[in-house]
Amino acid sequence: MTATPDVDASRLASPDLLRSVFRRHAAGVAVITARGEHGPVGFTATSLSSVSAEPPMLSFGIGTGSSCWPTLSGATYVGVHLLGEHQRELAATFARSGADRFGPPTAWREGPEGVPVLDDVPAWLTCRITARVPAGDHRIVLAEVLRGHHAGPGRPLLYHQGRFTGLRD
C-alpha cells in the first residue's frame, strides 16, 4: 500500500520543521578535528559529503555558534574521521558542549599537518580547507583531501531519530 502525502497538512518552513524532517534521514557520523591555538578542537558532524573526485574534495557544515568555529574559521587543515558503531560514546563526547573531548578515554595522536587523528576509527582523512561558504547560521567548509587511511575496524555509525545507531542488514 502506498501512502499519499498529505499536502494539506504541510507546514511552513521553520527550524523545527527542518529538524523533524532530518531526524528521519539516517546519516553517517564523523568527527572533525583541528589543531587550535590552545590545544586540539573537534566536533561531531552528520553533514559530511563527498564533493569531487578530481581533485578529491569533501564538505561539512559547522554552526558559527559552535565552540570549534573560532578555530575552524582560521584553520588551514582538518582531520575527518568516520566513526564505527563501536564508537557511540566517542560521538556523544564530541557532540556534547563543554566536554573534555580529547581527555581520557579519547585516544588520539598528532597526525599529518599537525591535525589530531583519533585512534580506532574505520577511516580518516587529513584535508586542507579551501573555502568557507556562508549558509545561514552555519558555514559549509570545503576541503581538499591530502592523506588518509581506510582500513580501520568496525561497521559505520549512523545518526537517526536523534540517536546513534548501527547499520542493520
UniProtKB/TrEMBL annotation:
<dbReference type="Pfam" id="PF01613">
    <property type="entry name" value="Flavin_Reduct"/>
</dbReference>
<dbReference type="InterPro" id="IPR050268">
    <property type="entry name" value="NADH-dep_flavin_reductase"/>
</dbReference>
<dbReference type="InterPro" id="IPR002563">
    <property type="entry name" value="Flavin_Rdtase-like_dom"/>
</dbReference>
<feature type="domain" description="Flavin reductase like">
    <location>
        <begin position="22"/>
        <end position="166"/>
    </location>
</feature>
<dbReference type="GO" id="GO:0010181">
    <property type="term" value="F:FMN binding"/>
</dbReference>
<dbReference type="InterPro" id="IPR012349">
    <property type="entry name" value="Split_barrel_FMN-bd"/>
</dbReference>
<keyword id="KW-0560">Oxidoreductase</keyword>
<dbReference type="GO" id="GO:0006208">
    <property type="term" value="P:pyrimidine nucleobase catabolic process"/>
</dbReference>
<dbReference type="GO" id="GO:0042602">
    <property type="term" value="F:riboflavin reductase (NADPH) activity"/>
</dbReference>
<protein>
    <submittedName>
        <fullName>Flavin-dependent reductase</fullName>
    </submittedName>
</protein>
